[in-house]
Amino acid sequence: MDDNNAKFFYEGAMNLLKPYIDSGKLVFLSNQTTPERTQTQSWSTKIAHKRLDNLIETYGYSPQGMRLDAI
4, 20, 36, 48: which could join 26 in a potential S-S bond, CB 3.0 to 4.6 Å? Predict the structure, then answer.
């Protein structure tokens, strides 16, 4: 992590999301839920775009395929 605030954001977000994850209402098909896997180095839009394109392709998200509710 190259941004100290990212740690605090991650912890706050996961505290709110955890009950939904635990109940199965919120599912991460990629299993990318650790701080290292959810953050984009240097806030790079290029890296983030490439990562999202890869996830969309890998899991078949599309209007005709797997439904993607949130990013």
Answer: 20
Confidence tier at 54 by pLDDT (50, 70, 90): very high
Residue at token pair 């209007």: 63
Tokens representing 32?
A: 């990318």
Residue 3: both structure tokens together: 């941004």
Q: Which residues of 32-61 are buried (b: 16+ CB within 10 A; e: fewer)?
A: eeeeeeebbeeeeeeeeeeeeeeeeeeeeb
Interatomic CA distance for residues 42 and 6, integer angstroms:
11
pTM: 0.71
Beta bridge partners of 66: 61
